[in-house]
Amino acid sequence: MATASSSRRSGLGSTIFMGPKCRQTPQHIQGSCRMKTKRVLVLHGYSSANRGDGLLVDESLRFIRQACGDNVEIELVTSYPESFRYTGLRTFRSKPAVTGYSRSYLRLLATRFREYDLVVGVGGGYLRFGTLGETLKTILVMGPQLLGAAFSGARTVYLPQSIGPARYGVRGMLKALLERMDQVWVRDDRSLDQFSGKHVQRAPDLALLALKRSTVDFDKSALPVISVREHRGGVPPAVTLLAKRFGVFDGYVQSVVAGNDDSEAVRSLNPTNILSFEELMERPRSARVVVAVRLHAALMAINAGHYVIHLAYERKGFGAFQDLGLEDYVVNVHDFSVDDVEQKVRMLLASPETRRDYVLRVEQAQLQLQHGRARVLASLSSEAFE
């Protein structure tokens, strides 16, 4: 039976839509992805050397397997296939070499993905057309995949995205392509407003949908941690000033891939130590106060039990911290008060009450995130959308 799509206030500052409308579907073809889907193509992977992008691919695969069963056959399109060898998946390189696209990738595009039952765009923020250089990269690397998904005969679901900026006259075409998808989830209100459509709906970032915050004792003597990246040509001056205010602090490098290597940016701030992924995220000895520029460094640190302030450089950061109920712990990395952020850090370091409030907000948000997870999973296992 066709049902009307409903919506309600999430309690986190945004309207969350409660699932797609379904077409009238003959009884004999109704059922779950677990029953019918055999082959799934995952699009828009980048590199696992950027831990945030690796996380998004990993979570996309977990969602697909939970919806479709562990025996589903999954293939992955990615800019750096070698970085995803650990998945054991067949991969296609989407990033063109000097001589052009690989033959296997061109053959895949030529099929218009007809051999697949389900086509899934990983969660992320890769449909960006903000500068001329960014636009050209998006067209060359992401464009063929987006076109293939839009004109595929398979079901198409794009997991939570931040879409845009969309300059240089691409917005109308981009919106038209998205409207051809069966489901597009967006992870921030601005993307929802700019690309609203019948199948474009709001959901939290995949990292939030997988959030299971660890409980780690806080050590008030532990140094704060700063994790940065270059943006708009360097480390933003206010971030450098904030690091000088701290005097002593530890650093953390989130990404070491190609043009997204944060190592030099972190070293430029002169941290006392640079923590490994294992020390900060996987097996932290204690909870720390973390100031992070990359969104998924921030979200992974929250998941590990830390107290995080996010210096956001894109819309996705504000959407994620809104969904966590932590709106006052996210600021624009290019326009923030160093005094205010320093004060927040010192309050988290000194005040057990401030830390309890932080944890309570995350715990309250997790109830809503569970609902969001169920809706996204349902979109992968639904057989038809209106």
Walkthrough of the structure:
The protein has 386 residues and is of the alpha/beta class. The chain is built from 14 helices and 18 strands. The protein has helices at 33-36, 51-68, 103-110, 132-150, 171-179, 189-194, 206-209, 237-246, 263-267, 277-282, 295-303, 315-323, 338-350, 352-381, and strands at 7-9, 15-17, 39-45, 73-78, 90-93, 118-121, 124-129, 155-166, 183-186, 200-202, 225-227, 250-252, 256-257, 260-261, 274-275, 289-292, 307-312, 330-332. The strands form four sheets. Strands 3, 4, 5, 6, 7, 8, 9 and 10 form an eight-stranded parallel beta sheet that branches. Strands 15-12-11-16-17-18 form a six-stranded parallel beta sheet, sandwiched between helices. Helix 4 (132-150) links the parallel strand 7 and strand 8. It is globular.
Quote the distance from N terminus to C terminus: 11 Å
Shape: globular
- Name the structural class: alpha/beta
Q: How many DSSP-defined strands?
A: 18
Report the sheet-strand fraction. 15-25%
Topology overview:
Layout: E1 7-9, E2 15-17, H1 33-36, E3 39-45, H2 51-68, E4 73-78, E5 90-93, H3 103-110, E6 118-121, E7 124-129, H4 132-150, E8 155-166, H5 171-179, E9 183-186, H6 189-194, E10 200-202, H7 206-209, E11 225-227, H8 237-246, E12 250-252, E13 256-257, E14 260-261, H9 263-267, E15 274-275, H10 277-282, E16 289-292, H11 295-303, E17 307-312, H12 315-323, E18 330-332, H13 338-350, H14 352-381
Keywords for this structure?
6-stranded parallel sheet, 14 helices, 39% helix, alpha/beta, disordered N terminus, 386 residues, 20% strand
